[in-house]
Amino acid sequence: MDKWLTHPTALKIISVILGVLLFAVVHIDPETAPQVATTSIETKVIEAATIQTTGLDEEKYVLTAMEPTVARIVVEGGISSLYAASPEDYVVSVDLSRAKPGLQELPLTLKLPKGIKEVNLEPRKVTVQIEEIVKKTFDAQVITEGDPAEGHVVGTPEILSENGGVVQVTLPKEDMDKVGLVAVHIDVAGADKTVTNKKAKVIVYDTDGQEMPNAIVEPSTLHVEVKVTLPFKQVPLQIRYTGTLSEDLSLVSVKPDVDQVTVYAPQNELDTISVYDGAVLDLSKVKQSGVMKVKATPVDGIQDVNPGEIELEIVVESTATRTMSNVPISIVGGAENVTAQLVTPASGTIDLTINGAQSVLDEVTIADLAVIANIAGLGPGSHEVPLELELPPYVQPVLTDGQALTATVTITAGTAQSGEDAGADQEVGVTPTSPPGDTGSEGEGQEAANDRNEGDGTTGADASGSGNGNAVTDETGLGEKQLAAQWEIKNATLT
Hints:
- Residues 416-495 are annotated as: Disordered.
- It comes from Paenibacillus nanensis.
- This is YbbR-like domain-containing protein.
- With 495 residues, this protein is an alpha+beta fold.
- The protein is built from ten helices and 33 strands.
- A hairpin with a 6-residue loop joins strand 28 (370-374) and strand 29.
- Strands 1, 2, 3, 4, 5, 6, 7, 11 and 15 form a nine-stranded mixed β-sheet that branches. Strands 20, 23, 25, 26, 27, 28, 29, 30 and 31 form a nine-stranded mixed β-sheet that branches. A three-stranded mixed β-sheet has the order 8-12-14, with no helix packed on it.
- The chain has four domains: 40-132, RNA Polymerase Alpha Subunit, Chain A, domain 2; 140-229, RNA Polymerase Alpha Subunit, Chain A, domain 2, CATH 2.170.120; 234-316, YbbR-like domain (RNA Polymerase Alpha Subunit, Chain A, domain 2, Beta Complex), CATH 2.170.120.40; 321-489, Beta Complex (RNA Polymerase Alpha Subunit, Chain A, domain 2).
- The chain starts with a helix and ends in a 6-residue tail after the last strand.
- Helix content is 15%, strand content 44%.
């Protein structure tokens, strides 16, 4: 050993080793040496990572509360890995697949990007509140907001969606008991025509009127319409006629599919409207029994009509004739202090031939006919007075050549009578001279005429009657009853 240490070559080797060691001791900084060894690893802190939920059966349950909702994560890894990872790559979650209704504490799990490991997760558990959910069907209501334009009114809102206003609301069981109203809102402020909202949002309110934002509604929007119109009201429908039927046809009945219509008009016009007669049937187009449609046209200040079209069920039959014997003549319109005497015809009656559908004529009786001599405005003396006819609907008179509807009446001035007697004088002067066998029918007709014409102040220069409409063009726009009451028979003389 001593020889080896004293050997010149060995001493040279030892000297070199010692020199290298001394160089290292002098030139290496002890404070920087650790940094060279750890430069590839770094630590990162994520202060508020959102806690996600997984596995919840959303058909049965709803998460109503979770505390806390964020977690603090400390991780470490290579610099390149830390910088390459985004915040979304750090996933903190809680598994709710086994959760049950109620308050409970569940563990958190952490999923990290590749090359990064967990140093710390805080907290390790969260408290969650799970509630059972229920679904219930409601009928949504429409709430209008604002006032329409001046002079207009808001109609009943209508939901036009496929299932109407039926919606399904999903809420926790406890919250469902608090639902007070399901509604959509539509603004009609300043509107002068119908307002339509195709996507009105459905809102659920509790019993205190507060919105329940956690409610899930299906469908979430509805198609809503609110009519904004002029004032309106319902009035009876009266059909008018124009044109004529062919001579071989007569009306049996005309029945509209509605009895009333809704008319829209400014309020001052609406107050004066008591009947709607803007639907006109052109009789010249009626060739057989069946259904026809006529337009409901706005008239007399009316701006709109609903429905806008009327369906008429029309029945016609072949024309037939019938003679009604000994129809009594009634005198009306006389003053209280005069006496009126019927001179001709002396019998106080006339024979009247009428035509119409056979089924209609079969129902006509003497009581349904009225022959009236109106002496209103006539002074004392002898007067030839035109006779007015009042006949049932769809019946008309048939006058032979030379036949006229007039009567001669003598008016005599008299003393004022009591109210009871004066009333009787309205039909005085009828001197029945017909055979005793005809007295019953004449009396029956006279009484019916009295009933129909009591207090009637109608005047007219022409004899008039009523009929089935197959020989009259209603140019005055009269309705069915007026048409029957004002059938004019002109240029006739009594034989």
